[in-house]
Amino acid sequence: MPSSEREKTVFVIDDDEIIRLSCEQILHKSGYRVETFGNGYEGIERLKAVKPPLLVVDIKMPELDGFEVIKIVRKIDPELVIVVITGYATIETAVDAMKMGAYDFLPKPFTPSELRLIIDRGFERWRLANETRLLRKQKEEVERKFVTLVSHQLKAPLGAVKQYLDVLLYTCRDQFSSEAIEWISRSQSRISEMISMIQDWLMLAKLDRGVLCESASLCDLGKIIEETLQEYQQIPSANEITLTGEIAPDLVPVRGDKAGLGLLVDNLVSNAVKYNRPGGKVTVRAGREGRSIVLEVSDTGLGIPQDFRPHLFEEFYRVKTPETQKIPGTGLGLVICKRIVDELGGSIEVDSKEGEYSVFTVKLPAAESEEEVDKN
Amino acid sequence: MSESKSVLIIDDDSDFVRAVQALLESSGYRVRSALNGREGLQLAKTTQPDLILLDVMMSERTEGFFLLQEMRRVPVLSNTPVIVVSSIYSDEPVFRVDPETGWLPANLFLAKPVEPAKLLSEVKRLTSETSEKSTAATGRRQL
Ligand SMILES: Nc1ncnc2c1ncn2[C@@H]1O[C@H](COP(=O)(O)OP(=O)(O)O)[C@@H](O)[C@H]1O
Ligand SMILES: [Mg+2]
């Protein structure tokens, strides 16, 4: 059947022949294509093949009743608009049907114009839902393409420019004046900033598409923390920060994506190191608290003034104080953390005292089963 | 540098190639380059470099991966150290390298843009290992 025909088709399922005939007559006159069925089974079979936008179904029928029909057709076509005919005009039956996903109800007896009004509305509703779906699909497609475009067409040229500058400064340093060197270094860090911005942004786009949820397994958070801390301990920091991990022996696994959890810990530790002061400390704790796993990253750094705290998890938000001004960043790290935590069904909170400390506390649901922990 | 080692760069980004070529030459390496996988494999076979620097994502998304596996099947190249450079994340699923199976038989992974000092020290390390005819490249992930 051509879609133009399908898009004006109404199915009527009713054991009462009079109702079937009158529905057919009235709706046919309004330009609809009508198919009628004397029982639920026939209607459902045909519905699978035709996929009409709208179904009118009687509630009280022998064999399969209206409720059962609704239950079955909802599964076949979630977009189908259903109107129920209620014989004994009790509001309760109508309400029950609506709860099961019917769009509207028609109490018997009804006039031709009442029927027409409800069917026209039902079709309008189907058309709108259809348009929204199409738009959403198009939007997703555009977003996906855009992400690919950004990752390849923007990152690659930036990377090439940065590569030239890196090599230039490395191989020809003694041929430049100190001012030239300073300018090249500035260019390098500005480009790095932009590259990290693109990377963080891409990561967010990925999280939006749920990519980090696909590979959920039981993860050993303690191990992830240790690996992250090791990485930071290897980088010689100008600030001489001491990093410590305190992992409770009774820590149980977390269900999640290993890369996502790693990213979470990494972002929190990177902040604790970045916004610290010379000789400062960073402590990462993980332990159990009832049915939750608690991850706590604390530092003895700059702290976050009270007024800024409510905005920390907003995109591109960065605290602007004289102390933080020179520290590079994208303002996306905590947004990424929040998304990951949300995805895992947890929460993240911050406590801080300006000039003294910051503590980020993440609570995650503990994995319950005895499944084998992913050793990778 | 007393003896001069040779490096082959296979990458479709000609600017990256020029910059890295200049860097390696400034440290005394002889450098050849290829802008696509086919040409790269050909050059690798004929010139048998001491080390290969390979981009995984050339015009074809997986070109570099396949090239690397093909290279390992060529007897004269089966032991040549390979550094894979890439601007993609290490958490990208396609990039999750299993150190046990070593299905991607590279010796080292470096993020693009590469840090000059890091690249030079790794190239030096890997090329001096070859001269001792060390063990085969088994795809140890060292990132
Ligand atoms: N441990 C911390 N101590 C002090 N300030 C912090 C800390 N963590 C985050 N912040 C503040 O929150 C802001 C947002 O952090 P984040 O989203 O990770 O972005 P970025 O680190 O790229 O700036 C930072 O710019 C910083 O001002
Ligand atoms: Mg950050």
Task: Write a structural description.
The complex is a heterodimer of chains A (376) and B (143). Chain A is an alpha/beta fold and 376 residues long. Chain A folds into 3 domains: 3-110, Response regulator (Rossmann fold); 141-208; 213-374, Histidine kinase-like ATPase, C-terminal domain (Heat Shock Protein 90). Chain A is 48% helix and 19% strand. A 5-stranded parallel sheet of chain A has the order 2-1-3-4-5, sandwiched between helices. Chain A has a 5-stranded mixed sheet with strand order 7-9-10-12-11, covered by helices on one side. In chain A, helix 2 packs across helix 6 and helix 7 (178-208) runs parallel beside helix 10. The model of chain A has no long low-confidence stretch (mean pLDDT 89). Chain B is of the alpha/beta class and 143 residues long. Chain B has one domain: Response regulator (Rossmann fold), CATH 3.40.50. Chain B is 35% helix and 17% strand. Chain B is built from 4 helices and 5 strands; from the N terminus they run E-H-E-H-E-H-E-E-H. In chain B, helix 3 links the parallel strand 3 and strand 4 (82-86). In chain B, helix 2 runs parallel beside helix 3 (63-72). Chain B is globular, with a radius of gyration of 14 Å.
How are the SSEs ordered, and which strands pair?
The complex is a heterodimer of chains A (376) and B (143).
Chain A: H1 3-6, E1 9-13, H2 17-29, E2 33-37, H3 40-50, E3 54-58, H4 66-76, E4 81-86, H5 91-99, E5 104-107, H6 112-172, H7 178-208, E6 217-219, H8 221-234, E7 242-247, E8 254-256, H9 258-274, E9 281-289, E10 292-299, H10 333-343, E11 347-353, E12 357-365
Helix pairs in contact in A: 2-6, 3-4, 6-7, 7-10, 8-9, 9-10
Chain B: E1 6-10, H1 14-26, E2 30-34, H2 37-47, E3 51-55, H3 63-72, E4 82-86, E5 108-111, H4 116-131
Helix pairs in contact in B: 2-3
The structure holds adenosine-5'-diphosphate and magnesium ion (MG).
Adenosine-5'-diphosphate (ADP) binds at residues 267, 271-272, 275, 299, 301-304, 312, 317-319, 324, 329-335, 358 of chain A.
